[in-house]
Design the sequence.
């Protein structure tokens, strides 16, 4: 069970780092060859396949002129529930 908790923490940390780096890349206007952008692109390749099914079901929420993507929050909550559900059955 410790392995499951470790994987959940790793995925959650990766999602949080991906979100923060996304803000830095967008608002910092990083050049394409910047190391932060390269780390963001690497994490993006790992995170996007997990977020795509959620985005297909939950559209972005319009907030004024912007859209708020709730899929990372939903994924974090869902991943945090995995060990709880496994504890019930095993």
Sequence:
């Amino acid at each position: 069970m410790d392995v499951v908790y470790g994987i959940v923490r790793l995925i959650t940390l990766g999602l949080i780092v991906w979100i923060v780096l996304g803000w830095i890349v967008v608002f910092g206007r990083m050049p394409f060859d910047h190391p932060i952008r390269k780390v963001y692109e690497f994490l993006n390749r790992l995170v996007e396949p997990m977020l795509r099914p959620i985005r297909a079901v939950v559209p972005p929420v319009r907030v004024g002129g912007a859209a708020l993507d709730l899929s990372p929050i939903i994924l974090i909550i869902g991943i945090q529930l995995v060990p709880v559900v496994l504890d019930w059955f095993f």
User: Anything to note?
Assistant: The CA atoms of residues 31 and 50 lie 26 Å apart. Residues 2-28 form the longest helix (27 residues).
